[in-house]
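re: that complex we talked abt at group meeting.

here r the seqs, copy pasted straight from the sheet so there may be weird spacing, ignore it
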Amino acid sequence: MPRTPGADLPDHPDWLWNSPEPKHSYDVVIVGGGGHGLATAYYLAVNHGITNMAVLESGWLAGGNMARNTTIIRSNYLWDESAGLYEHAMKLWEGLEDELDYPLLFSQRGVLNLAHSLQDVRDSKRRVGANRLNGIDAEWLDADQVAEICPILNTSEDLRYPVMGATWQPRAGIAKHDHVAWGFARALDRMGVDLVQNCQVTGFDRIGDRITGVRTTRGDIAAGKVALAAAGSTSVLTDELGLALPIQSHPLQALVSELLEPVHPTVVMSNAVHVYVSQAHKGELVLGAGIDAYNSYGQRGAFHTIERELTAAVELFPMFSRAHVLRTWAGVVDVTPDASAIMGLTPFENLYVNCGWGTGGFKATPGVGWCYAHTIAHDEPHPLNAPFNLDRFATGALVDEHGAAGVAH
Amino acid sequence: MMLIPCPWCGPRNETEFHYGGQADVPYPAEPQELSDVEWARFLFYRANPKGLFSERWNHQAGCRRWFTVRRDTTTNEIFQDDSHEAVTR
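got the structure back, here u go
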């Protein structure tokens, strides 16, 4: 029997949350109803007992980058600071379906990060060593071992940039991004947290340097604490306060093919020829690559960026040459100078910032929620997000993941 | 793909250009006088407006000269520097 793509997926659910009118006041207001905002609210409620809380979303719930990412989850980052945070997220992912009692289609199908040059090989082996010292599963594979795991990958030597090997993280994988957001949203709604959509924050109320609330398109809302989780739109919010952040907003494009039979068993990422590819549960090939070069808040990018990434994909996966592009889209990602996030306190009392996740925020979702909730509840960073403070740009203690993280940014 | 107006070569495809980010970021006159915070500002902080943005482009595959345009970061509408008139989309 030919398999109908998507036949084994759960049906589309009924409404999982209400859409309440915003109240006049909350203990905590979270600005941004994407994955990070929802996860943060969830752990504020579960770990810290805060439920008099609203998540404000300017559009529809999880319709920004949470709807636009390529759903890859991994924790094989080079530096200790990143490894700590992403591996914490990975451990939470591994229990999240049970925790939320909701199917997230979390599939630990592994990730291959390809090496195409001697320098790639050296860097990759170094990263495997660093990962292992941090308790993260990582192996170095030669080209034959890569071919065993992913037979559709062209590992012959006649490529312009042959596959010389790869790092392999077996616990990496993908999850269904919408379900992740819906799982958190359903749990929040049941705990009495208000999820307010079509509610854009336009400014802040303050007494001196103390934030006391937000101004929104649905009225003013007083708040004990305000936590930003607005990704590419963060600068627009902080500009209202004259608070400068070292982030630049760029389009990041992704695309899918039509639904295909399952052909791709894992996740493949190539830094050097620059494309990353997995196959969604439903059957689409999901592809992404780098940002468009210029600053932009338009959720679209240029076709030549897509063309370049498809060239790389077809070189690595010759069988994809017959596939068709079904949809392309872009999200607005906030990129920092060291390609690491900014997460913690701000110069304003009762205002917290989580931004700068650039091209890699989805995989961190539960880890961000856990640590950001701690930061907000205790007015002090969790040890895992302490290195990702805003002060590091002045002290020089950067977490330089440019080129180190197994993917170009 | 944007059509970018090079002041010397005329409008050319975006693929011929290299992006240089925010325009008018001067090197500090007295760099040794700067505090760490001020130095961080110069190195790492750039404006990130939603709307009009003055930015540098280099015509890398053409005349190789730098120039400034003003672009709307939401619509990609490009205006010649110091002009409010849209010249291309």
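couple things i noticed - Residues 3-25+42-88 of chain B form a domain with the Folate-binding fold fold (CATH 3.30.2270.10). Chain B is about 10% helix and 35% strand.
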